[in-house]
Write a structure and sequence with these properties.
Layout lengths: L10 E10 L4 E10 L7 E4 L4 E3 L12 E4 L2 E4 L10 E6 L31 E3 L7 E3 L2 E8 L10 E14 L4 E13 L19 E6 L6
Antiparallel strand pairs: 1-2, 1-13, 2-12, 3-4, 3-5, 5-6, 7-10, 8-9, 10-11, 11-12
Length: about 220
């Protein structure tokens, strides 16, 4: 968890549900990350559903995604040793992505981050509003269970959708608060459960985490 050594505290609410499927557990979360710092990245671990302190992102495998304002990186390629690959799916809803594709995953390069490829994860409206609006696409992540294994694999798979960039997404006030929803399948299959859970365990509840505590 983030160390309580700064002066401004932000509560990040994570809605966590564990769906019991025929293949294992599907972890479903909605997570808001304070990405307002223009100098430092905020990192998250999808399995834990929270932000994590990372001393050196280029050597750590404890994070999956990093956020800094509109910039988003994945732990793979030039961004980190995690060997995470991603791809974008258009013209399909989050709920309708029921299986992760088998191939065409790419990692961050020196030229471009995965989430900036194509038209990126957001659209900037320009004047007069200057809004940042998430694009209607779903990203699928392929996450090696052990990035050091040879040959590579097995993998975890996650589907991710950006749903907001503001502390208040209705009024567009407080920019730099990135909200995502995601589902992580950690049993090695490429299958995502239906959006309606078949069973929810006793740990499915609203939790509050201390996250992304920033300096004024």
């Amino acid at each position: 968890m983030t160390r309580l050594m700064y002066t401004t505290l932000l509560l990040v609410f994570t809605i966590s549900t564990t769906v019991l499927t025929g293949h294992g557990e599907l972890h479903q979360n909605t997570l808001t990350v304070d990405a307002t710092n223009r100098e430092n990245w905020a990192y998250i671990n999808l399995t834990e559903g929270e932000t994590v302190d990372i001393a050196d992102a280029t050597t750590s495998m404890a994070w999956n995604l990093g956020f800094k304002r509109t910039a988003v990186i994945a732990n793979g390629g030039v961004s980190g040793p995690g060997k995470i690959g991603a791809l974008a799916l258009k013209d399909i809803s989050f709920e309708d992505v029921l299986e992760a594709p088998e191939e065409t995953y790419v990692s961050d390069t020196e030229q471009i981050a995965t989430f900036a490829r194509g038209d990126g994860w957001y659209t900037y409206t320009g004047p007069p509003n200057h809004w940042v609006l998430p694009n209607p696409k779903v990203y699928v992540l392929r996450i090696p269970e052990d990035p050091t294994a040879e040959p590579e694999g097995p993998y975890y798979y996650a589907k991710v959708q950006f749903i907001g960039y503001y502390e208040n997404n209705e009024t567009k006030e407080g920019s730099g608060y990135v909200t995502i929803e995601y589902a992580l399948q950690d049993d090695g299959t490429r299958t995502f459960a239906e959006s309606e859970p078949t069973s929810v365990n006793a740990n499915g509840k609203l939790t509050t985490t201390w996250a992304s505590i920033k300096l004024k």
